Amino acid sequence: MENSKQKIAVLIPCYNESLTVEKVIQDYKSAFPTADIYVYDNNSTDGTGDIARKAGAIVKQEYAQGKGNVIRAMFKDIDADCYIMADGDDTNPPVPEMAEMILRGEAEMVIGDRLSSTYFTENKRPFHNSGNRIVRWLINTLFNVKVTDIMTGSRAFSYTFVKTFPVLSKGFEIETEMTIHAAANNLRMVEIATDYRDRPEGSESKLNTYSDGAKVIATIALLFKEYKPMAFFGAIGIIVTLISIGMLAPVFHEYFMTGLVPRFPTLIFGSFLFVVALLLFMSGIILEVIVKKNRQIFELFYIRTKR
User: Fold this and answer.
1) Which of 92, 229, 277, 295 is an S-S bond match for 240, by CB 3.0 to 4.6 Å?
2) Domain presence at residue 254
3) What predicted TM-score, i.e. pTM, was given to this entire model?
4) Phi-psi region of 107 (alpha: psi -120 to 50; beta: other; left: phi over 0)
5) Quick one: 18 and 135 in the same domain?
6) In this structure, what CATH number is given to the domain that contains residue 134?
7) What is the pLDDT along the chain (307 residues), one digit of tens a residue?
């Protein structure tokens, strides 16, 4: 049951969603009668902002293009006890249980899981389906979590999550960044199965399967390096070490057999690679200490922000 004393903010980032934004606002008004509905218009050219304003939403403009930029502005500007993030394309219906879990303190982020319901039957873009599976496998493997829907735009957040989440992404990779942030900092994530419906006819996705997919993969690699540097640099170090051993072993074998070193260039380059491997291991160790210290600082800041 929604507590009227607890403030709920519905956040709807929009770019050219004139066909669907009014229905989205109406649906979320019905689901969350006491919530403030915010629409951040990201340079739309089809009148999305005007339609949202007439539908009763609080409309603001974000000029820096990209969903990540919009989310950064929303998280900075708005204070609430519970934040509901929704896409303006009418693909994800509201789920009141997501807010209830946040307000009861059961999670810092609730994820609307589309993939366990109707996503693969409703979504008409097969490469998106494959991309979701690849991203899910990478994050679950690298960060040792079990999240079904990594890239969904249907989420709910606590005040603490919003005010301690450093938004670095500019575009659609923002959802991936949110999931990794929660996993790396041991913030409780809960998934709720939600329905998914494909965009209505005439509404076009702003997500580019290939370029945005590449950005998501690059974001995963970057955040893996930043959150788990020992694993990242250690893995590269092992590869370089094996290459070095492969080059040096025949040289040393010839030396022990004949007392001669006929392949000096191989010896020099193999030794260079071995030194590089040692530097990679040392870099991983040093950065791991820094990351641990940063986690301690984050934990203190997280406790202070908790309410």
Assistant:
1) 277
2) yes
3) 0.84
4) beta
5) yes
6) 3.90.550.10
7) 455 578 999 999 999 999 999 999 999 999 999 999 999 999 999 999 999 999 999 999 999 999 999 999 999 999 999 999 999 999 989 999 999 999 999 999 999 998 887 677 766 665 566 777 888 999 999 999 999 999 899 999 999 999 999 998 898 899 999 999 999 999 999 999 998 887 777 666 666 667 778 888 999 999 999 999 999 999 999 999 999 999 999 999 998 989 888 889 999 999 999 999 999 999 999 999 999 999 999 999 888 887 6
